[in-house]
Amino acid sequence: MCGIVGIVGKSARDIVLNGLSKLEYRGYDSAGIYLNDLKGHEYLTKKVGRISNLKAALTPDEQGLVGIGHTRWATHGKPTEANAHPHFDVTKRFYLVHNGVIENFKELRDNYLQNVNLVSDTDTEVIVQLVSLFAREEKLDTLTAFKKVLNLVRGSYAFLLVDNTQPDHIFIAKNKSPMMLGVGDGFNVIASDALSVLDQTQTFVDLQDGDVADITKDSYKIENLETGAVDRPAHKVNLDPDAASKGTYEFYMLKEIDEQPGVIRKLSQTYLDSEGHPNFDPKIVDAMSQADRIYIFAAGTSYHAGLVGKAMIEKMTNIPVEVDLASEAGYHFPMLSKNPFFIFLTQSGETADSRVVLKEVNRRNLPSLTITNVEGSTLSREATYTILLQAGPEIAVASTKAYTAQIAVEAILAKAIGEKLNVEFANEFDLREELALAAEGMQQLVDGKEKLQELAKKYLISSRNAFYIGRGIDYYVALEAALKLKEVSYIQTEGFAAGELKHGTISLIEDGTPVIAIINDPVTNELTRGNVQEVEARGASAIIIAAKEFARESDDIVLPEISYLMSVFLTAIPIQLLAYYASKEKGLDVDKPRNLAKSVTVE
Ligand code: M6R
User: Is any atom of ligand 1 closer than 6 Å to the C-beta of 380?
Assistant: First the structure.
């Protein structure tokens, strides 16, 4: 949540603004920049809204060789200029940007800052005022004052601090919020995501929790609050700067939908050997095979991917699987079996709700696996094992390719455990062939996207609400479909088990209410058809997405042939495209829906 970029030693304005634009998907309700030209001039500019507003507000002479910038997703206080970062102290000597949440900021404010006039409602301002207070009253140098504050703080943070009495330094601190130091020739750059500054350097130092650093254009000194001076080696990152660009697409969401067949092929090539057997680290497979119950924790779309994973893992391994919302499980921990194993599904690897659960799992010394798209992310570092999604950067706030990648990894994992346990279904299921069929079918569906555009225009864009219904795996997909549609189009949408509507919710059906039925389940397809008739009889406009095997002539989208267990890969495409086109046709910002942020690092 929020994005941070800082640089010392180079044309700071452009680098910070470009970097912030690349991080804008992480938070976009306000933005700000502090620049210092090292010749005695400094500039602070903050604007409500997008980075484009900030850019427009800067005059040509506002340049610097040092700069820190921030794009915000509000946690404390409304999106206003006063609450936007960088924050500054009463003497206007210190400037600070922050990602994360300071849990004890009220306590710190009440204990230390009663005589200081705070100008914002944020937790961050308390920190910069405290640094200033300690520097003034105790005559501490900046780094010492900063460390004194860090030792008082409880919470998550990535901080960049500039002191205008020594403006050729940036002071950094990191705890539970991502922060990378990029090393350049004659400059150093800091960002909450390496992707935002890849055009400057490919060499990075991973800062760890508790690290405090002092950087200049030619040097960086890192120490850890607990262990003292540390040596963090720089390494080259293997990231393609173009992977994070939109290319010829109007929106990332469509690009990412279109990329899915390629992602599925890549996962198949990476995690299956030439004979179609999974090749994950045997330690992961051994640990999981010994479990008597697998617990999956996740949020949002990843939670929905977990539900589909449950169906796959149970079918292939006969091990029961429980899927829990991380935000609930963190404080209402599930009752555990004797030999539990924990999976954390998270595209970003930074979701605070999931992290709370993982901490508890670690406290109990239990084995865990994080399945994530981001190498080196917090949940990846803190779990026993990691498997990467290999989906490439996902920039649109609405998750698409990470969802299908998560399900593909779960399928391969299910087969690995099933084979290890010698489960007949897993032994016989030709996953390589099935994933190839899935990728081919997905390609056909993305190629036929115009049909989804028509359906979105005809049924969705003027509708206030909508329903998705399905049974079995189709129900799990209906939940994801509803989340996708509502988050980007603002059409209030519910995903329902098809048989459940008649137990109350059918009273919401009116003339023209769109009800989108997903029909792939061989056992219940007729029953779902019956539920469609029930809603049509009450005026609903039904849209049917059905497997070829059970399709009828009047169905709107007929999915290419594939086994039921794999049907999610195909259904995912039309439900994502319906959401995309509903949003686009309504003229909304598809990639950055209101009130949302890509990675949710607050509980
Ligand atoms: O990074 P994570 O997978 O842990 O994120 C979980 C959710 O915040 C995320 O899936 C969210 O629901 C997306 N906006 C859905 O499109």
Answer: no
